Every structure is written in structure tokens, then in C-alpha cells.
Amino acid sequence: MTEPEVWEALAEVEDPEIPVISVVDLGVVRAVEVGDGHVHVEFTPTFLGCPALETMRRQMAEKIEELGAEADIEVILDDSWSTDRITPAGREKLREAGFAPPAPRTAGPPRLVQLQAAAFRCPYCGSSDTALENIFGPTPCRSLRYCRGCRQPFEQFKTI
Amino acid sequence: MNERELLLQIADDELVLGWRNSEWTGIAPMLEEDVAFSSIAQNEIGHARAIYQLLAEDADTLAFDRRPDEYECTQLVELRLVPDWARTIARHVLYEAADELRIAALKSSQDDAVAGLAAKIDREEVYHRMHAQMWADRLGNEPRFREALEELSPHAVAVLPEDLRPALAERVHLEIPSNTVLQGLERGGHTDEWPELWAEMTEVRRSVPGAAW
For residue B54, which residues of chain A lie inside 8 Å, CB to CB? Predict the structure, then answer.
């Protein structure tokens, strides 16, 4: 078994809460190491309280076991993951499914006035005339916004 | 205080505050806040879990298998504040301000695992601080909110180790209370509400020891 084969298998593991995007597109697989009958994966959670974490970990292990190797999925609890690690393909898949992809990180932490500004683009109609409805949403990684253009509420990925 | 002790204090605070915040699920004054407090609760409990994992093999053992007097949580997080929204927001504002200071201190830890985790927690907490700030601006000079801030300020000072207290006083414009007042609020002492909360929090674990979710 080769590293590219493992990456290919992991690309089939979906985020259980946003099934349009894989763990690879989400950028949470930090490293893959193939040994003798054994695969070591470094996995970085998005948010520490994300309830999908264990499911993703189990599904990754299952995919690797299907390839005939033992899997060791190590959860890395540091700040090496950020929303900037979502791949361009991943961002496009999010947008198509009605989730506005995260804004790129800036030098300082995001600020409330930035979220309240009408600079975020609606994933449905492309208008940037959108307003913050709630900093929090159905999962830790998302906020809720409202598009004044097409009068649709939508989910905006938080930048972290 | 060594770093391990500080980590356990933070983890216990986050676990208990997460529990208290989740008490708003379903009954917050508006739907947005139902979602917000549930989400914040989920984050806080996630932070507790991650820190417990640094400290022990199994997070649940630390979270649920201790006697009530073995928890290090601060009294501010133990208070049951539903259905009082003004006091809930006052605690939120004060706690987030205190928490930011100690997490910032841990970001420069010599231990890479601690510094890395603190940096991650800090990035998530940015959104809690925004939410607290939004409500502080909204409630402004409402008398009930001001009274709640005054009432809970001494508790907020007791959240932090002594060296970080002056920075908190400066940030939220409060005075550091006298030693006599602080004495009753320091860690190690618990509120009257704590035994009941502990019993509720650990009930499932105690009834089926070793159960997996």
C-alpha cells in the first residue's frame, strides 16, 4: 500500500455533518505515514467540541482497514488546523451546497464589526448585501447570515 | 502554582460552565440565544475534554470520577443563573475576560503541547468574546445588568491566579476586593449549588460505572 492510495481512500470519508465535503478537502488530515501493514494518520479537529470528531476518526480507520492495514489515527490537539486549510475544491463544494466558505484569516483575530459588515457573499445569489443573524449556528463551525438580495438565510463558515 | 494545576482549574471551569450554559437550551429568551448558548456550551465542554486528555489517559475519568471536593472549579461557574438573563450575561462577560488572560499566559508555555492547545482554544474563544461584547453593548447601562456585574465581579477576580488579577481589574474596570471578601470565594471552597450540580453531572456515570457513549 502506498501513501497516495491512503489519501485516495481518506478522500471518500465525508464530514458527517456536511456530507458534501471530505476530510481531505476539509484539510483535517495533516499527515499520512505508511509502515509495514500499518498506517499512521495525524488528524486535527476543526473545533475541539465538534461532535463529528469521533465519527470521522472511526470512518478513517475503517477505510484504512478496508485497504488491509492496521490504522492508528492520532488526534493532534494543537492549533495547526485553520479554515485556511480547506482546499479550493472543498470551498467550491461548500458554496454549491449552500454553505458560504470561510473568509481568509487576517493578521489579528476576527472582530465583531467585521462580521456585522455586509462583506460576506450569499452562496445562493452572490449578493454581498448580507447581515449577521447569529454568531453561532447549528454546529460550532458555522454562523447564520441573512441575504437581503434573495431573502434567504444561509450558513457562513466561521474563520478560525 | 504549577502549570498542571492551572490546566486542571481551567478544564474544571470549562466543564462546569459548559454544563450551566447548556441549561439555557430550549428556554433562552430568543431562539438565537438558544443556539448561541448551546454552541458555547459545546465548545467549553470540548475545551475541558481536550485539557483533560493532556492531563490523563481518559478524559471521562477526570470529568466524572472525582468526589465533589476534588474538583477545582471556581465558584463563578457553579452558580445556577437560569432564568436570570442579566446575571447570565454578566457572568459571560466577566468569565470570558478572565479566561482570555489565563489562556494568553498558557500560549507562551514552555511545553509545546500546552502552548499549542491554548492557541487553539483561544481562537475558538474569540467568538465567545464577540458574543459577550455584543450583549454587554446591548444591555449597556440597564440597572439589572450593572447590578449583576457588581455582584459577580469579586467572583470573577477569584477565577484567576493572583498574578493575573490586576490585569482583569484594569480590563473590566473593577476593583480588586478585599482579602476578607475574596477568602470566601477562592477555589477549594464551593457554592451551596455545587453538590446538586455534581450529582446531576455524574449521575449516569455513577449508575453505570465505565459506560461508553
Answer: 77
**Cβ–Cβ of A77/B32 closer than 8 Å?**
no
Decide: pTM greater than 0.80: yes
Which residue(s) pair with A144 in the sheet?
Answer: A134, A155
The ipTM, to two decimals, is: 0.94
Cell output for B141: 447601562
Residues A69-107: pLDDT tens digits? Answer: 999 999 999 999 999 999 999 999 999 999 999 999 998
Q: How many residues does chain B have?
A: 213
Q: Which domains are seen in chain A, by residue range?
A: 3-81 (3.30.300.130), 99-157 (2.20.25)
Q: Are A20 and A110 in contact (CB under 8 A)?
A: no
Return d(Cα B157, Cα B185) in angstroms, integer. Answer: 9
Q: Do A112 and B133 touch (CB under 8 A)?
A: yes
Instruction: Write down the CATH number for the domain with range B3-207.
Output: 1.20.1260.10
Tell me the average pLDDT of chain A: 94
Q: Is the pLDDT of residue B213 over 70?
A: no
CB B72 within 8 A of CB B14: no
Q: What is the dihedral of CA B51, B56, B60, B64, to 10 degrees?
A: -90
Q: By a Cβ cutoff of 8 Å, what residues of chain B touch chain A? A: 32, 35-36, 38-40, 42-47, 49-50, 53-54, 112-113, 116-117, 119-124, 126-127, 130-131, 133-134
Judge contact between A84 and A94, C-beta under 8 A: no
Q: Coil, helix or strand for A85?
A: helix
